[in-house]
Please model this.
Amino acid sequence: MTRIVRVDPRAPSPEQLQDAVRILRRGGLVAFPTETVYGLGAHALDEEAVRGIFAAKGRPAFNPLIVHVTDADAARALSSRWPATAERLAGSFWPGPLTLVLPKRSDVPDVVTAGLPSVALRVPAHPVAAALLAAAAIPLAAPSANRYTELSPTRAEHVARGLGGRVDLILDGGPTEVGIESTVVDLTGDAPLLLRPGSVTREELEEVVGPVAVAADVQGTAPRPGPGMVERHYSPRARLLLFDAHALPRARERVERELAAGRTVGAIVWSPVALEGVEADRLPASPGEYARRLYATLHDLDERGCDLVLVERVPLDPGWDGVRDRLRRAAHPE
Ligand code: TXA
Ligand code: MG
Model:
């Protein structure tokens, strides 16, 4: 049985964290809240412990993990090169929802980085994650606390539902703020390369370090991206279809057909559009607030037994890049 310990999300007490710390230090698995999503943590320098993460998630060994640390100094200590771009980005966005990929030091086990010569590093801002890292005094490898290819958890209940019985302890710090996974930037090459969009946008990064290339644009020319960039990812159990508010008749036809076939249909919209016969979940028309609620909404639709969820396409505006990326990966091509 997995134990769930409630913690004060703003100021967790040492007593609330002590079991988690003990478990992590002796090589166990603890799920904890970060500001993005819940992470499944293990001692990053303990190979056996890290193998436990891959086993619990059912994650293939070629997909490397993010190592969470208390501050930029601790990050620098795990990298063999710390360029000026790292210093600037860390200074501007840490603690926060940004992950930096840097050449790794040899004491970072290969199992963490999937054999890559680089390591992904992040200093989380969530008070529970920060306090846990400080109290455990070890770096924590932590992917999102979900089974491989499934939806990331933004609440402790999501973790319990997906990984219950496979983790030693879950720290319940309530719902997460950001709601989608951190922005990932590769700093091992000549210019910063955006591997995964998130709430820290490309524009914000460029204000600090100048031009940032986007992995999706350079694929085919660069050998770098790859590891975690599996196409189908972040998926709910329900089939997810993106629809365009400007092509409503098609979406409505689809709904009619599915309902006639006896299927349960849900919808997520952000504009005032309506789809007859479906009670849509309306998310805020701002990317930050939409992101905060997206995964919880998808988890709920799964719980309600939806077979199909129609999701209104989000604006092409760069502020929506992170959300658009997650929706595209979660959706089934049609
Ligand atoms: O917000 C987050 O980043 C959450 C919380 C828990 O911190 N973590 C998370 O981890 O989303 P995960 O494992 O689900 O995603 C890690 C991403 C993957 O796309 C992986 O391929 C990439 O980071 N990554 C890790 N190490 C890398 C490396 N050395 N080079 C390139 N990409 C790497
Ligand atoms: Mg993940």
Remarks:
- Residues 195 and 215 are 5 Å apart (CA to CA).
- The two ends are 40 Å apart (CA to CA).
- The first helix runs from residue 14 to 25.
